[in-house]
Structures are given as C-alpha cells and as structure tokens.
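Lecture 7, part B: from sequences to assemblies.

Below are the input chains for today's worked example.
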Amino acid sequence: MSAPATERIGKIVAPVVVGALGLALWQFLVTVVKVSPVLLPGPEQIWQEWQDNSTAIREAFWITGTNALYGLVFGTVVGIVLAALAAWARLIDGMLAFVVAGLAVIPIVALAPVLNSMYGADSQYGRRAIAAIAAFVPVYVNTVRGLRQTTPQHRDLMHSYSASPWQTFRSLTLPSAAPFILTGIRVASSLAVISALVAEYFGGPRKGLGSFISTSAATSAYARAGAYVMAAIVLGLVAYVATVLLERLVQWRLPAGGTR
Amino acid sequence: MSDTPPSLAKNADAGTDPAVDADQPSRSGRPGPAPTPFGSVDAVRVRGVTKTFGSRKNQVTALSEVDLTVPSGEFVALIGPSGCGKSTLMRLVADLEQPSDGSIEVFGKTATQARKDQDYGIAFQQAGLLPWRTVSGNIGLPLELHGASRAERKSRVAELVELVGLGDFAKSHPDQLSGGMQQRVAIARSLAERPRLLLMDEPFGALDEMTRERMQAELARIAQETGAAVIFVTHSIPEAVFLADRVVVMSARPGRITGQIVTGIAREVTRDQSLREDPAFFAKVTEVREALHGAPASGGAEER
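Predicted structure of the full complex, as structure tokens:
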C-alpha cells in the first residue's frame, strides 16, 4: 500500500477510533461507575430521547438552520458590498471602521432580548438579524483585506490595458480577494449558527433548537437537552462542511498558486 | 556616418564618446531598422523630459532633461546603474507615470492616447500573471478586455502559445510553470494585440543565466518576426549588446542619457551562440562598459 493511501485511511480511522473510545468511556462511567443520570446522562438515554423526539428535533433543526442561513446570506451580502465600497473609497472605510468595531464587540446576550421583544413573540426576524450581524463582521473584515491584495504590477498592467474600473474589479480585484472572502464566510457560517441558537435563549417563539435545549434543561430533562445539543452540533457541522466545500469549489475554479 | 539613425544625431549633445563615432564605419552590418518610409512617425519621441518624485521638501530627480527618439522597428536597450531612471523612462512612455516636465509622443500621439489605443505591449521583471488563469487565459486577457470575439481570441492565443513554444502548457496554471516559462507567457501576452511598440522592464532579470540566454535568443527572433520597435530596460551589458540595434547608456543622480552606442548588429543577423563569441560583439560590450563607467575600463572590469 502506498504511503499516501495509508495516510488517508489513517485520517479517517484515527478520529473514528478516538470517538469510539470516548463513547465507550462515557458508557463505562454511566453503567459501571454508575454516575448519576442527573450529572451525566448516558449515550443510550440521549439516543432514546433523540428517537422519541425525532419529529420535534427535525422541525427545530430546520427552524434554527433557516434562521442561521438567512443571517449568513444577508450578513455576507452586506459585508461584501460594504467592503467593496470601503476598498473603493478611503472615506467610507474610515466611516465604517468604527461601526464594524462596534458590531464586532456587541455580545449576543445584550442584543437578543432587545430584538426578540422588538419583533414580537412569534417572529424569527430578531434571531435572523442577530445571525446576520454575527456573520457580517468576519465577512466584512476579510473582504476588505482581500480587496487590497492586488499587486502594484497587476494594477499597472490593468492600467496599461486601459481597463475600466469595473473590468479591473471583475478580472483582478475580485479574484484576488476570493480566498479571503471565503475564509470570512467559513468563519461566519459557524458564528451564524451559534448566534441563531443562542438568540433563542432570550425570548421569541419557543420552537428552535436553542429554545428546546433551554426548556429541557429547565425541566431537568437532561437527556432530552443532550439530544437537542447533538442536533445543534450536527447543524454546526453541516454549515461548516458546506462552506468548506464552497471554498474547495472556488479554489478549484480560481487556483491561487504562487506566481513570480 | 550615413547609416547612423537620425536619433543619434539628435542626441549628439548627450555626450556620445567620440571614439564610438570613429569606430562606426567598420561595423559589420547595418545598424538599426531599414530607413522608415516618408511620412511615417517615430515610435517614441521624448523631449526634455524631467521627472521628480516626492514632496517639495524631499524631492528626488529621477530623470533630468532626457531626449530620446526611437524610430519604428528599432530595438533600443536602456542600460545604466540602479536609480538612473531607466525604468522610470520606460514607465513614462507607457503612461504609467506622468512627466514633471517635457513632452512624450508615442506614434505622434500623447502617451495617454497611445495607451488608450493599445499601441504598446508591456512586460515587467516579474511575469505578473494572474494565478487563477491558465496560460491561455493570461495571454488572452488583453484581448478579452478589449472585446475581441471568442473565436478571434482563441486563434490568436493559439498562435502566441506556439510562438513562445508553450504548446503543451496552454491549459496549465502559472504555478505549474518555471520562471522562464512564466516570463514567456508574459511576453506572449505583451504581443497579444500585435503592438508596434514593446516596452520591457528587465524581463529576464530574475532568470538564471542559461534560461536568460535562451530567452534573449527567442525575444530577438520574435522582435525580428513582428518588426515592432522595442524599448528594453536592462542592467546587463552583454544582454543589451546582444539584443539591441542601439544601446542607450544612462547615469544616475540625476538620471540622464550619457551615451549611445549603435551595436551594428543587423536585425537579420541570427542571435545565437556564435554571435556571443564574435570578437565584434566583445568589442561592443567593451565599448558599452566604457561608456557606462565614463572612462576606458582598466582591463576586465566587472559588469552587472
């Protein structure tokens, strides 16, 4: 067997082995050491709750997932557009710098109760807005940096071609920025999921994964809370994998190898 | 002296070594291009150009009172020490910088108009390829920007890829190519729109000696085939003599033209190894070196 193939198998086998060992240790603590289910619900119990509540989990998964997706898309679009304006005019960059710095340090816990009551008890807009704000910051910051990656020589070249500003943007500035924008989106995807989830702890409709986690925990149904936490982890992973695939796709279309 | 290009006479005040002129009748071939037909304009006409950089307080004069004429089809090498403004002069012709004083005409137009009309092709020391585009995509970039049809672009790119000998690499990306191959792509790109003027800023400066010599031979062939005028910035004396019809020697602080040497190697002469070993070639290399150092060099003075 060739070395790369061994390596690839190792990459898959190693985490599976670690996961299985962790699961075994968990089950061991619950069944042999007999740790109280209040302190540590067993994997079996959580699996049982998952099966019993599969419909509710699926619905909650979609609600939170949709909120996160709305937030991610909106935050990304606004982030890229504003970054393009900032890269185009120093003045706009200076004006936005403070706003972005402010948005970056707003804690979700501070904003969520306000927005949730503002939009009413049966609206998802507050959560989407929070996810959008969380997603906007990394996309904006990375895009601004990405749009400044063109080299003086490439700019000279475009100038020598008398390229219009739009042509220069489309065939030089944007492709140069693409890897940076994608890094921003990857970071934003995880943040959007976390924000959509956490925002549900602070009012609004009691339907998403976050709502059910807090409700279950409040009624001491720890195993059920565990099942919803698992669903939240799956959601986070789905978002992450989706953006990594997007990144791969763009890298394949626009390889950014070293040039001289 | 009858075969001296008019530009040389115009620049007689620029400090040409008298010994250079005395040597000219014994040249082996015709210097420069064939006489340009009546009414045709010079490729480049630089008159009294001064270029200063920096604030009023901290001003650096990159070029001072420079005159240079390049007739259509002539290959001119600009040579001089670092900071002599040779790259700046080329950038002024390309309209990448504006002169502080004096005038620049390219094919009888302003430099800006010539740039807008795509009258020149340009290549830099770094190939400057777009890493996300293939070799074909990079060569086709100027054609694409100027609205050439897909079919037109395809046939021209195929032609150019063959011209620079990269037929097998048309679909490769720049990071899969060696430095020399990348530079060939950059040269092909500069030729894409069949410019009558090529501006080259040390295009082989970053290459190893062997690749460099091969590229020089290729460029000489391409220049001969296309008949374009060339302004070639270099700091290598043998490179300048090997390629050019005329070597323009510059000095630093302030940058100005201090001498011009017609190599006397006709365009038709094949640029190959035998030329590099020709005693006449060595004589011209020595002549340029002496002009560069402002006095006869004492024996094997080192160039570059």
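Note for the exam: The first helix of chain A runs from residue 3 to 31. Keep this in mind when comparing with the next example.
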